[in-house]
Protein 1
Amino acid sequence: MKFGTPKTRKWVDLVSKYGTIGLEMGICVFLGVVFGAYLDKIFHTEPWLTIVFTLFGIVAGFKSLFKLAHDLMREESRKANEEAEGERKERRD
Amino acid sequence: MEHGGIFYYQFIPGLNKLPMQVGNAALVSFILLVLFFLGYRSLKKRDDNIIPDKKFTLVNFMELIVEVSIKLIEDNMGKVGKSLLYILGSLIVFILFNNLSGLIPGFAPATSNLNTTMALALTVFFMYQFYGFKSHGIKYLKHFTGPFLWMAPLMFPIEIIGHLARPMSLSLRLFGNMMGDHIVLGIFFLLAPLLVPLPIMFLGIFVSVVQTLVFVLLSMAYFSGAIEHEHEEEHEAPVMEEVTEAA
């Protein structure tokens, strides 16, 4: 496995960026539930804070998914931009 | 997680009373220290620093490690990354060699214990928050309030949960991969000690390298997310529309 060839780098990028999203979404929901249950115990407001914080956790998980999609779109637009620049240069030549 | 068996660190006085992961981490770090010290000394002795040695020497090895880490950091973070070379480079070296030490009989990798990986991930977590506050001042809190100020009470707990999920996912991923690899290797050794575990050992090398890269790449993403300025994104948004129209 040669280091730093474009193919390898792309592959590692894929694993590190998109392979993490499942774990992160799950952990977000888990943290939400744990926080909610803990706060419920402190304030004696049984199911309410658990429900609210579970929703917060779900939203946080989807927010990280959304951020990933946003980054992906930015990356793709950057690539398309570079390709268009290259084509324009070719036409000028 | 009580393993039976003999480990190298048990023979070293001072280390044998420590828990397993601490003893192994200390042993691996000590070996690395000796290696780097020897490399540094032979680097000092040479009079010509430009032409590399013909054989694969210790100095080449050190240069390879440093070059790969610098390239990785600069490719992903740009010029800001140079100030982070110390923490990220140490992470690369420590995690990579601890992972790989698991393939040698007599070592139990420290990274297959949740305590070690949690310590690493929490270090990254506090460091990137610190760098965020350092580069933005109190305005760093704007990262937590979302796009509008009236949404702040709603966004704040969401962002806090999202940020707290990061060290947890970092540590759990590294721990799970190394632990799983270790257990699979152990079971295959029990079933058929000759030749059958070889593919799993190859897989172990692969997993060690990839998990190191994943840990460091994600840390770099968190660091640059904390350091970068928010308004840069707004400049890039119109470019995207232009391209889609042109396409």
Protein 2
Amino acid sequence: MKIERDFLEQSEAYLRGEMNALERKAFEDYLFNDDQARKKFEEHKVFIQTVKSYGARVDLQQKLDAVHATINIQEVMPKKPLVVRLWDKYKINSLVAASVALIAVFTTLWLTGFYSKDNTSQYIALRRDMNNIRQNVKAQNALIKDINKGKSGFSTPSHYGATGFALSSNGYVMTTYHVIKDADSVYLQNYTGNSYKAKVIYTDPGYDIAVLEIIDKSFKEAGNLPYTFKQNAADIGEDVYTIGFPREEAVYGRGYLSSNTGYSGDTIAYQVSIPVNPGNSGGPVLDNRGNIIGVINSKQTETDGAAFAIKSNYVLEALASIPDSLDKKLILNKKNTLANLSRTEQIKKVQEYIYMIKVY
Amino acid sequence: MSKEKKHTPPNERELLAGILKGEASSLETLYKANFPMVVRLVVNNGGDIDDAKDIFQESIIILYNNVCSGTFELNSKLKTYIYAVCRNLWLKKLTKKGIYSNIDDLEEKIAVEDDIESHKERDKQFIMMENALEKLGEPCKTIIKDFYIHDLTMQDICEKFGYTNTDNAKNQKYKCLQRLKRLYFG
């Protein structure tokens, strides 16, 4: 034990270079002569080397950690591509911007009534918006006032204008539902310029039909109606005409029946090729023999000559469902007195029964 | 070989000499010049900054050991050598994780397999020694470290630990060493 300890100490002293030349020589000689001692010495040397290299590595690692602590991680991290960095930076902003844009788009669409239209924008109901021509009317009023001082022109302009025609001689008038749907009061004006108050007694929104009754005391029963409703379907190509009030004066429009269906294949209407304008709504469509084949209600924009008229058989169907509890009996005319007259004669007779409808 | 030696710029040889001496400034230069490259390599191939640190430090230890052994000949730029070692180490680590991947790059490929193999052997010894010293406990651990690693004399150790004479200290050191050997080889 003691001998081994001394031997190792001597070995270490030798390795550390703590021996003088004489001692070194003696130790080397000893190792040279003793194989076992030499083997032991080598083993010990290797082991010490292992311990030393362990120490060196620990030391190195500590130094490396110290250096690493001084490194700025942000700087050495690889840079992401510009797009990715911008996205990281402005992600929130762009999301907010996108939502604002979406909200703006849909709000605008909603405010401009994009969603509230029942049909597409190509379809317009033919009631005349009086507010559009209010300026003209006012100018006209001013003119009238200038000419006939003291006499006032008509006062407030109506909201809508349209056309209607007599269903019977005792004051029932037919027009379209969309004309009177928001009405406060309804006035009718005949070709001579007499104005009558009327009330709505029946509506059928499905067929776009409304029946008015003249309740004005000044109304005198007219004679028998000259026209009748056509019971069966009219044929394509038939010559037809209408009289309506797209302006303050009755306007005659002539054309032909161009299709058996209405807007987007609507079977309750015909397509007629007659130049019609807002205000023609509710006007009768008559054939050559003076039979009413339909009632004008709409037209297609961006398409030439595509006006639509509710078919007479649907009008009759709607009239048949009017309840019996009316003030006066609604008796439809059965005798047509226009059949053999020329067009101008027909018009003269028919226009007496056609009214301009003013809705307030 | 001598022709290739020209590839190593003088400052790199100086740097290696500095590292061998354990100069902190040389290590810092080496670290700052090469670490970002390794971070890029590891982070772009599925690792994080800590993986990069481990891989890079391991490569420096390999370099250091090679330089220490005196057999090391740097036949390429230091950067290329470190990159090759790190690439190799990281691929091994990925494979160990069960991720079979390849690192596509245009870097010059140099053979570092042998260096890594001998490093593995040294690494094993290092871990064995670490464990043995851990089990050895105090004061033996410190005595062994002070004498063999920090090259303190027995006189210093005697004073540091308050032994009455150097013979006691030598006795204690001898016992510690015998235990360490048993732990290390056992």
Protein 3
Amino acid sequence: MTGLSPQQLIDLTYIVAAVLFILSLKWLSSPVTARHGVLAGEIGAALAVGATLFNPELVQYRWIVIALIIGAGIGVPLGMVHMTAVPQRTALSHAFGALSATMIGIAEYYVRAPQVTKFGMVEIGLEVIIGSLTFTGSLIAAGKLQEILPQRPITYRGQNIVSLSVLGTAVVLALILVIHPAYMKLFPAMVGVALFFGVLLVTPIGGADMPTVISLLNSYAGLSAALLGFVLNSKVLVVAGALDGSSGFILSVIMCKAMNRSFTNVLFGAFGQEQVAAAGHVEARPVHSATADEAAAILAAANKVVIVPGYGMAVAQAQHKVRELYDALAKRGIDVKFGIHPVAGRMPGHMNVLLAEADIPYDKLLDMDVVNGEFPQTDVALVIGANDVTNPAARNETGSPIYGMPILDVDKARTVMVIKRSMSPGFAGIDNPLYYLDRTLMLFGDAKAFVGDIVRELGGTHQ
Amino acid sequence: MPSDFISNLFVFILAGFVGFEVIKRVSPLLHTPLMSLTNALDAIVVVAAIIIAGRHETMLSTVLGIIAVGASFSNMVGGFLITDRMLRMFKTGKSKKS
């Protein structure tokens, strides 16, 4: 073999990195091998970054090193956030990824312009539009998740027409730039309009739809990286972007299916509005409520308990108390499992991470399909901070806005207990017939405090 | 249509297929770590950022490149870190007691 040029050596390293990235995701398929996956990804990334630093085209290093140090300085605290902050951290990292891809696309444009080929301009235009809208959209999502911005959907009449015409404007500006490369002044306008569209895209979307939106933004962030790979003719970016994009896409599809909605319905459906009408005729019906000691007595007499956590558990930070409840029940020989709906929480897998953080063994965390087969043999289903995902109206009320959405069949358990602050309807504003069943006991109070009270009662009767 | 585009499209479609096949096997249990890991892998755009910044072609391209290096490297470091922290928490009943 004759000598390899430095560029060829770098490219070979990139191939190794791309293979390691694929292995990384492959090993993530099971919790047993998942940490090897992280290591493979880290090695791949380190090789690729290390090799790039030997690129003969580089003429200055000082600012690169400073930027890498600052990046690590921001990255470490973002990697150390509390588990309850993971959804907003994830949204923020979509924003950073999109920001990076957008900055590079813009830089590349100004290096080439006005001598951009028509085809090159198509690629850059698409890349920069998707990157920009992902950047601002993710920032808005992060703001909503951090509750800096209101979580409820913000809607107004004619919203979709306004949003779509803004996106249309960005596309038209890009097309003009393709046809007339000399109109360079239109480029910043295109970027600005695309950034604005990102804000319009996510502002109307409510907190309960965040799992889908965060997955879609993940997919866009991957797509913008892959498109950047097209612009720069960099295969490693194309591969990494395609992997990230397909991951986000798969998750979006899973989330949409779990809500029985389409992408367009999530993005343009303005979920909040339909429900206002549906919530209008809520009549006051009697419910059965119970105290902590009554709940503890029923749980103590059970053989099989399924706990169904939702966003309310995350808000109340009740996962550690839930762990104590799990321990107290398991000590009595009661079979305790957790039923997890795909859209419970604010991002895919949110509940699993919180429960794992509280040291609950992951083999007790069951998917919707598995756990639904177990409810008929379950003595007590304990719902903590979940609402719409347990609403039987989704199964049998054709008029309900959530009709058709797959739910956790908690109403098939012998006794249902629901920890809830009050009877006010849940996030989506839909009344839940589950609460009025004879077998349902409402446990009114803060999730963390109430679970703590049950644990105390269980401990007291035990000793 | 430039030939680079065709070869990139080739890679994109194959990588998309591999991604689809591999990722659909990921347990729903690990969907949050999946998202943070793919974020970290996606941060490989840092290599393009390093080149744009290091070529020092124009002041603008260098400044934008440096911002991009910082933004993507923070994703890379933070993404791997939090993914590993999350995965360390996933234990079975047996390993928990040990």
